[in-house]
Amino acid sequence: MGRVVIIANGTIRNDEFHRNLIRSDDYLICVDGGIRHAARLGLRPQLLIGDLDSLDDDLRAWLVGGQTRCETHPAEKDFTDAHLAVDKALRMRPDEILLLGCLGGRLDHTLANLSLLLQCHRAGVPARLVDELNEVTLISGETIRLQGRPGERISLLPLSDHVSGITIRGTKYQLDNGALERGESRGVSNEFVGPEATISVSRGYLLVIKSRGA
């Protein structure tokens, strides 16, 4: 299938930015309280996943009036609702997964949501966490191209203990077949010098973060 968009219950500050990310042919999954974001954005998901205990009467009535399917899970469980939503999305074999409302708010949830990129990568499905300030993806044994503007920031953070074969072009500080160790900050706050940057990595998992803010 095409693209799956997952809206979680994290921070969404810029409604217009997020609304413009959604395409008419996206399959939309909301994660529990993420349904509030969707309703505010005027988006009706095909699927809602979570314990659903926190939904008020207005939201329940809005859901009943549409075509949203609800998949209820107990509040006490082994995995987060976002993890369950990604599992569901991966079973659909999409071309890509876009995760919104997954950054900001509780730090433990943000870190857990970042780890979902590893789950997607192992399944062979490209995935991104996006908000109005950040775009996060995970690469390993591949090359990606990112679009940006001169001065926008791009950071590389090792998720593995050792990441090697790192090559980066189109940035202020370039690298040829370099390496980074987990815990190092040398890859933080590089800059686009043109409209596109390319990043390659041979071994290990590397988080690539494009930041639109200062």
Structure explained in plain terms:
The chain has 214 residues and is α/β, with parallel strands linked by helices. It has 2 domains: 3-132, 3-Layer(aba) Sandwich (Rossmann fold), CATH 3.40.50.10240; 138-211, Thiamin pyrophosphokinase, thiamin-binding domain (Jelly Rolls, Sandwich). The chain is 23% helix and 35% strand. The protein is built from 5 helices and 14 strands. The strands form 2 sheets. Strands 4-3-2-1-5-6-7-14-9-12 form a 10-stranded mixed β-sheet, sandwiched between helices. β2, α2 and β3 form a beta-alpha-beta unit. The radius of gyration is 18 Å and the shape is elongated. It starts with a strand and ends with a strand. The model has no long low-confidence stretch (mean pLDDT 91).
Roughly what percent helix? 10-25%
Task: Please state the overall shape, judged from the principal axes of the Cα atoms.
Answer: elongated
Could you tell me the radius of gyration in angstroms? 18 Å
Unreliable parts:
none
Assign the CATH class of the largest domain.
Answer: Alpha Beta
Hey, roughly how much beta strand do the residues contain? 25-35%
Largest sheet at a glance?
10 strands, mixed
Order of helices and strands: EHEHEHEHEHEEEEEEEEE
Structural class: alpha/beta
Q: Could you tell me the number of beta strands?
A: 14
The total count of helices amounts to 5
CATH T-level fold name of the largest domain: Rossmann fold
How many individual domains?
2
Order of neighbouring strands in the sheet with most strands: 4-3-2-1-5-6-7-14-9-12
